[in-house]
Write the structure tokens for this entry.
Amino acid sequence: METKATRTLVKSAPELWELADNPDRMEAWMAAYLGLARSLAIEVTDRDPERLLAWQTAGQAPFGRIAVELAGKGFGTAVAITAHQQAPSPGADAALHNLLDELGSPERQPFAHD
């Protein structure tokens, strides 16, 4: 089953790439997409910096694959997510929209105290 989600985010491709190219995040996003409470080991299958990042479950059931494509668009970056899984998961659409929400949310910066 294929699921897609797209959105234009007000962040640059390098900013989004830094957030997305993180194994812990990719594992958590995969687990959420597959409707699992635990993280899954993943393997990166495609990496074209600041353009395409794709990963899949690493040799385990259930199978899942997520690809995030980035493209400059005006004052932001168009983000397209395409995901595949063997069996439909009730929260798959919501998981991809949550992934977009997480990528688009402002990064929290710690306050510096002198």
Remarks:
- The mean pLDDT is 90.
